[in-house]
Description:
The structure holds 2 protein chains of 2 kinds. By secondary structure, chain A is α/β, with parallel strands linked by helices. Chain A contains 12 helices and 13 strands. In chain A, the strands form 3 sheets. In chain A, strands 5-6-7-3-8-9 form a 6-stranded mixed sheet, sandwiched between helices. In chain A, strands 11-12-10-13 form a 4-stranded antiparallel sheet, covered by helices on one side. In chain A, helix 4 crosses helix 5. The radius of gyration of chain A is 22 Å and the shape is globular. Chain B contains 11 helices and no strands. By secondary structure, chain B is mainly α.
Amino acid sequence: MHNEATRSFSTSASFQMNPPAVITAENLTKSYGELTAVDGISFEVPAGESFGLLGPNGAGKSTTMKMIGGVSQRTSGKLSIMGLDPETHGPEVRAHLGVVPQQDNLDEELKVRENLIVYGRYFGLPLSYLRPKADELLEFAQLTDKAKSRVDALSGGMKRRLTIARSLINEPKILLLDEPTTGLDPQARHILWDWLFRLKEQGVTLILTTHYMDEAEQLCDRLIVVDKGRIMAEGSPGSLIREYSTREVLELRFGSERNATIGRELEGIGERVETLPDRVLIYTNDGESALEQVSARRLHPVTSLVRRSSLEDVFLRLTGRSLVD
Amino acid sequence: MTSAHSPAVSAGRAKRWGSFFYAEQVLRVMRGYGWSVFLYSVGQPVAYLFAMGVGLASLVDANSAAVFGGVNYLTFIAPALLVSSAVMTATGDFSYPIMDGFKWRRVFYGPHASPLVPQQIATGHIMASALKFLVQSVVYFSIVAAFGASPGPWGWVSAIVATVAGLSFGLPLMAYASTITKDSGQFALVQRFIVVPLFLFSGTFFPLDSLPLGVRWIGWISPVWHGTQLGRFFTYGLEENPLLTLAHVLFLVGLAAAGWTLTRRQFVRRMGA
């Protein structure tokens, strides 16, 4: 379906005008025995781009990230980071990267500032560089007054900020972020997004996975929608929405018993009707007039909402399933 | 942004010194427990040497100095206590912290994303622990010497012997610990059914050949026995066949090397690449 079309699109010369690719993946595949976690995906990321992998849990996003991060070997395909193969040049590749893992793995028993310094030592960096750099990053992370606290005394949001600060200790040109804001409260998420914007402005290439569509829309210049280890679509958030969805969506709730039956009676309104267990979605360019048509058919939803299309709708269209189950 | 370094330089340094970088991390964490490590390394020998070497010895020495190769009981057991202490510390350092690294707090995975490779993480952990055993054994030996239980001039070598014995027992344990994915009390079993018997039946409190043959083999395969005999050789000049002395060295070093090799292999297998 869209699969083949988008894949050939991704390997075409559409990014020739951009800076050279810092990451190139060709038919990247990872199998664990019978299970194929990543099933032949191809993409390129030019320097300075913010590139996202959007998909539900288990789609193969983290596995892809681990292969890019040089900590998991691919089963087949080609992969190049800064022109190096992570399989043969693991340390060299990892020296280029900053990595924010899905689960924080800070040294809980060390002090906050010491975490940054110790991590910098792994990159062979001298203390004369690390001391001022650690202070600079603590300020950036708004953790200066916590510098001497032990990590286990920090809140979840602070730990996340420290993990991101730690990933920047070697001034990486490529930052890998695996579900950077999962588990954070909305305020902490916005602080992190603001941060990532600033890094992007400094020319850092961001690669991030997320199953939050708002995060993908906020942060990504371009993204791939991944499901079951395959690329379902590729493009900017705006172009994906234009391509796979309508301008607006009318969401109707008739109560869980009635959604399915009423969904059938709504056929013909808007461009497409999608019936979910908890609500009915009508894809249309004009939500208000669609709602009037619903009323005209003497159907009265418990609640109704007109909103703009999002990546969630793109995902639903591509896979027939919601992003967050 | 000006860069004080380049990725190529980082990778080169990490390849050469990576184990030391990780050892530095482990030592920094240990520093947080500095006081308890110090109190343990001083308090334990004082308590043991006093109880066994002074209390128990007053009974033993009154009976049969000949059984213990002509030295008093305190001198006889001091090397054994020194070696046992290092082995027990090793049991702690190479069991739960490995689970912690892979599973609980996943501390191994932080450096894994840096230019370090899994073998270096394993080796760094081992280096830091070895240094800890050495410091602890030197403190222990100083107290042994203060008790007058190391008459010869080469007694200090027994601190090194104890360190090697700690690794000899600890590294195979580390190799095993790094295969465990689910903690269901394995380490408590190791403690009860391996460490304690080794402590009791390794010629620690009485010569191994005073045991029936049926259990003497426990000593022969025990790093505690090999380490203890070697320690006795250095502290008071235990007389034994030189080939046997050489066998102690080979056994301890060989077991440590095998454990180290298996550990490195298992770290790579578990962490990938």
